[in-house]
Amino acid sequence: MSQTSELPDEILFFNILSLLTTKEAARTSVLSSRWRKLQINFAIEKKVKKLEMNLSNCRGISQYNKYFFPHKDFPTCNSLTTLRLKNVNVTGEVIEHFLSNYLALETLYIQSSDSLVNLKVAGPLLRLKYLEIRYCSVKKWRFQP
């Protein structure tokens, strides 16, 4: 166990990640799932417009041990226009959460998510212009403008 793993999230976030550029902070996501969560929160705090999480080449993450995207812990972000997730497991419920809570979201790209089985794209405030789903396990989908 590393010394940083014993530090509270507040110290990691405010005393370490906040001193880094957004790009440097993004690199910390390979360290652990805890760092990935902190990195996502950091990006939202910085009001990023584009967020890409590509765990395709991360050691310890295999086809059978993919990172699950924590939508319940993910803060609302009104500035996010593009979300790209590669080799990150998301469910249809997570996608519905994104589309309902990230009202500026225009581009959504999901690749290699075995957990994405049911997909519903709907909502009265939907601004989505581009949706790409690749190498996922979608069996049932519904689109409703």
Automatic annotation (TrEMBL):
Extent of the signal sequence: none
Domain F-box: 5-38
Domain At1g61320/AtMIF1 LRR: 67-137
A Pfam family matched in the record: LRR_At1g61320_AtMIF1
InterPro entries hit by this protein: At1g61320/At1g61330-like, F-box-like_dom_sf, F-box_dom, LRR_At1g61320_AtMIF1, LRR_dom_sf
Domain of life per record: Eukaryota
Protein name as annotated: F-box domain-containing protein
Organism: Populus trichocarpa
